[in-house]
Fold this sequence. Notes:
By secondary structure, the chain is α/β, with parallel strands linked by helices.
Amino acid sequence: MRILAVNAGAHMSGAESVLLDLLAHAGKEGWDRELLCPYGPLAEKGSALARHVEIPAMTPGSTRPGAAESRIGRIVRLATLPLRWLQSGARIRREARDADVVLVNSTMALPAIGVAFAERLYSGSTRRSRRRPRIVWLVHDTITHRKQQIAARLGGRALTLAIAVSSTTARSVESYVHDVVVRPNGVSIPPQPVTPPQNRTPVVGVLAVLTSWKGQHVAIDALTKAPGVTLEIAGSAFPGSEDYEQFLRTKVTELGLTDRVRFLGHVDKSSVFTRWDAMLSPSTSPEAGPLGVLEAMASGVPVIATNHGGSADYLRDGRGLLVAPGDSSALAHGIRHLTSDREKNESLRRVGREAAVNEHDLTSTIASMWQGISRD
């Protein structure tokens, strides 16, 4: 049996971590594996798990880590995106001739799937035969933006199945794909939760790449309404978002918060969870299945997140605090609540970890995803 995994970009994020976990699981099941993606961090990390086949980047942003891209550069990359879809689609079709499964890990790769399997867009049949592999989209995006909607329309009808990592995300793709199921994300569960920090200045944190839709600017604004609290921003700039990092640093200076906001860069989550009274996930656009939220829950760290996407799903029924997207006042209220009410804080630590253990253990979630990917 052979699986062909397709990723639009070269860089690592939560979606790519899930893909690598699935490729490792496929290897344990005895499958041959190929990874089609641009050369970069993902290809390097995946080299021990799958044979790498290089394809053009199918993302509109920069492909150069640590390098800002000019406006003209962005325009050129956007203008050439259709050509890169065509080139990638041709390569996918060649590589997929003997594949049993094609796993699509990126929304922006869907147009290339439409190119590779154009006959499916019109035949109305998605049944696998010797010449038609099972094509599965692992949905890591809640489809709300125009570019996502276009990509889904261009390739969605060629798919056999879409596996969404949250219920909210599943609803957002139902109009583009014949068959949709939900398989939530999972994380490694620490043997013990972190010990709640005590008798010190309250600290909250954001654990995410620095890019505008992750909402770090909202957390900074909220800090002006939560006196006595320190904010730690953990994460480095996502390629193409270097200007946003400078915007955040300038904002902190202009608001007079330099003594209360710390930029940590990329850190291991275990090094910050031990001192955070709460983790913030203030994304302004809906995340499909935020791993940072699950990692905090699994470690026993209370979460305050925006009430949309996978966060709303994972933190339902009082497993965390949910606030309106972009509402810094509501976020500040949540921060004040969890840093002053010890009973509420400890309750969310307990309830959140229990939900992570019962529903989001990586050993179970990867097996469940794989069952959906590989089934006939």
